[in-house]
Design goal:
CATH architecture of the largest domain in chain A: Up-down Bundle
CATH superfamily of the largest domain in chain A: Multidrug efflux transporter AcrB transmembrane domain
Order of helices and strands of chain B: HHEHEHEEHEEEEHEEEHEHEHHH
Largest interface: A-B, 70 and 73 residues
CATH topology of the largest domain in chain B: Multidrug efflux transporter AcrB transmembrane fold
Oligomer: heterodimer
CATH architecture of the largest domain in chain B: Up-down Bundle
Largest sheet of chain B: 4 strands, antiparallel
Number of helices of chain B: 11
Number of strands of chain A: 4
Shape of chain A: elongated
Distance between the termini of chain A: 41 Å
CATH class of the largest domain in chain B: Mainly Alpha
CATH topology of the largest domain in chain A: Multidrug efflux transporter AcrB transmembrane fold
Radius of gyration of chain B: 32 Å
Structural class of chain A: alpha+beta
């Protein structure tokens, strides 16, 4: 079985469309950033309490109880008919106990199966650490790529990587999803992964450049992309399959991670094929370095 | 044919040996894999000591906080607790298992300063002079806390009760009055009973707090993460399910797409899963829920190496090389690309291990180990299997 063989797709000819798509997504991402990242409890501080009731509870019923404590603006995450997590501002022990008591009065036996309670100082620290981690990751990858590759392929791969990171985080924000430590983990992995796809393609272009000095530059890049297309698609599929399995079968607790990974994989692949090589092409055409 | 030492399929022998060692390292899995609190259930609590004018913070007071918190947790009967000082003024407490997180926080975070005050509000003596505290029942069957003082406390208490016969002595816990009994007669033996309107739980908590002693400074719970064992079990179940389905999907894909070579990649993939978990066990690394996510993710990355190699072999074969030569060239040429592409992900993963906290650290560890194992199985183990089926090309001819 083989899906992709001897394709002759004119990727470079498609680049204007690709740039437009990317610019639109980047603008969407920036709108997301302007509206502000939706920090999770880890980064913003606050309390998550997951309750297990003995019967099915509706969100309205629960909100009615929370209103008594001025917590009606809390965010709910349903795990099952009888299992709901609420995210509130940081509650102290007395408040938690009072809330539990009120819920018990209304709904009968209630069990707390998860508490995440992060004070504002810790939240601030974790947020700072997260951004430091992102910056160090980018610097680490920059150093590696600049040692290992020539200037232009390195720069274009990194532009593609930045493109992926910005769009993924922007889309997450725009969809109203939380930015928490799981999303950070996924984001860092995506950065590494995005570079990896671009590198395979850039490697091929470099190899072709030294082998076929006379070849038309556009054809050369298109051939490289087509030759590696099977590999690009297959490696994405093999990574996508487990991630999809995690999205659909992994339960709610890993959802943030899985969905971020899913978006990242799709965007990362797109940018490696359509953005990195196209950028490299335009650069070379405008300011040729080739002998 | 095997004629001398050099012809032995070394790679295969080593692979089989590693598989055997990995199985040894992993049996029984429940005991060999160290689970994080998010999977086995438990509480992670961070306390911060607060500097107040009444109780200024110094090096010694933080040390005593650690000691007293340890005492209190010992009283709770938690098995294998971890109590560590973190930085200048923080104390990390990890309590595995079914401990009621609310109760744990209540007991750990309370200052538990017991004071006896006369009518004018003057402090007569404090809990620092206590010898013991026990839950007992009064004649109505209500739980009370009976306390006994040490020599110094008994003297002070005798003096206080003598001076206040017929008057109330207020018993305060952390500044809040819990009982205000009227002294009937001087108590000289150094025994007393605190009869608040306690529930049994409250009485037990108070007894524990009084036995372990008051904290020298105010503390605040600045971070708490508790997961009930049932939720942890659910997470494990979901994680295993997603991992198995993911593995099967990748298995089928490789088999359909690459035929017999895909089957070899699948065998290598099984080795990969085995090696990764064996390494986790041997290094005593902690497997967390994000760690399971990392494992599932790296399943895809593990066959990535195979895809790179197989695609390269196909290309080389199409360009007119013999199978053997194509295989040799495929492995050689794909090697550098595999290394490059994995190193960038490894940089990100390793970073999460170093700067991450708690369960995210587990993600970094598992992903880093996964990437290393995947390069090994993707290149080396697959090579061993391919060599088994296609005899090694000899370069003499």
């Amino acid at each position: 079985m083989e899906f992709i063989r001897n394709t002759h797709i004119d990727f470079i000819g498609f680049r204007k469309v690709a740039y437009t798509i990317s610019i639109v997504f980047t603008i969407l991402a920036i709108i997301g950033f302007i509206r502000g990242l939706n920090y999770g409890v880890d980064f913003a501080g606050g309390t998550i309490i997951q309750y297990k009731f003995t019967k099915a509870i509706t969100a309205e019923e629960l909100r009615a109880v929370l209103t008594q404590f001025n917590l009606q603006n809390s965010v709910f995450q349903r795990f099952a008919d009888d299992e709901i997590a609420i995210r509130t501002i940081k509650l102290n022990d007395a408040q938690k106990n009072d809330l539990e008591k009120a819920l018990k009065d209304k709904f009968g036996e209630v069990k707390i199966i998860r508490i995440e309670d992060v004070g504002p100082t810790v939240g601030g620290e974790l947020r700072r650490t997260a951004f430091i981690a992102l910056i160090i990751a980018v610097i680490g990858i920059l150093i590696y790529v600049s040692i290992r590759f020539e200037f232009r392929p390195a720069v274009t791969s990194i532009i593609a990587m930045a493109h992926d990171g910005i769009i993924v985080l922007g889309l997450i924000t725009l969809f109203g999803r939380e930015f928490n430590t799981s999303v950070l983990a996924a984001l860092l992995t995506i950065l590494g992964y995005s570079i990896n796809d671009s590198i395979v393609i850039m490697d091929r272009i470099r190899e072709k450049l030294s082998l076929h000095k006379r070849m038309n530059f556009k054809d050369l890049i298109n051939t490289s992309l087509n030759e590696t297309l099977s590999r690009t698609v297959n490696t994405v599929l093999t990574t996508l399959l487990p991630v999809l399995s995690l999205v659909f079968f992994g339960g709610k607790m890993t959802q943030d991670f899985a969905i971020t990974m899913l978006i990242g994989l799709l965007i990362g692949t797109y940018s490696s094929i359509f953005i990195a090589a196209s950028f490299f092409y335009d650069w070379e055409v405008k300011k040729p370095l080739r002998r | 044919m095997i004629k001398n030492w050099k012809d032995l399929p070394w790679r295969l022998i080593i692979t089989i040996a590693l598989v055997a060692l990995s199985i040894l390292a992993l049996v029984p899995p429940a005991q060999r894999i160290r689970l994080g609190l998010d999977l086995k259930g438990g509480s992670h609590i961070v306390l911060e000591c607060i500097d107040t004018p009444e109780a200024p913070l110094d090096e010694d007071s933080v040390k005593r906080v650690v000691e007293i918190v340890r005492n209190r947790i010992d009283q709770l009967g938690v098995s294998e607790p971890i109590i560590l000082r973190q930085g200048e003024r923080r104390v990390l407490v990890q309590l595995p298992g079914e401990t009621d997180p609310q109760r744990a926080v209540e007991i750990i975070g309370k200052t538990a300063l017991l004071e006896f005050k006369d009518e004018t509000g003057k402090t007569l003596l404090t809990g620092a002079t206590l010898k013991n505290a026990q839950v007992q029942y009064d004649r109505f069957g209500r739980p009370t806390v009976s306390i006994s003082f040490n020599k110094e406390g008994a003297d002070l208490f005798a003096k206080a009760t003598t001076a206040n016969v017929g008057k109330p002595i207020g018993i305060y816990l952390d500044g809040k009055i819990i009982s205000n009994p009227v002294v009937q007669e001087p108590i000289l033996k150094g025994d007393a009973q605190i009869t608040g309107r306690f529930t049994l739980d409250e009485a037990q908590n108070l007894a524990i707090l009084l036995r372990a002693g008051a904290l020298p400074v105010k503390v605040e719970v600045i971070e708490q993460r508790s997961v009930g064992p049932s939720l942890g079990k659910d997470s494990i179940r979901f994680g295993i399910r997603a991992a198995i389905i993911g593995l099967i999907l990748v298995f089928i894909f490789m088999l359909l797409y690459y035929g017999w070579m895909g089957l070899l990649a699948d065998i290598a993939l099984v080795c990969y899963a085995l090696f990764t978990f064996a390494l986790l066990a041997v290094l005593q690394a902690t497997l967390t829920l994000p760690g399971i996510g990392a494992f599932i993710l790296s399943v895809g990355m593990a066959v990535d190496a195979n895809v790179l190699i197989f695609e390269r072999i196909k290309e080389e074969y199409r360009s007119g090389k013999t199978w053997r030569a194509a295989i040799q060239a495929g492995f050689d040429k794909a090697f550098k690309t595999i290394l490059d592409s994995n190193i960038t992900t490894l940089i990100a993963a390793a970073l999460l291990f170093f700067v991450g906290t708690g369960s995210i650290k587990g993600f970094g560890v598992t992903l880093s180990l996964g990437i290393i194992c995947s390069m090994f199985t993707g290149i080396w183990v697959t090579r061993a299997l391919v060599d088994l089926l296609v005899q090694k090309p000899t370069f003499k001819s």
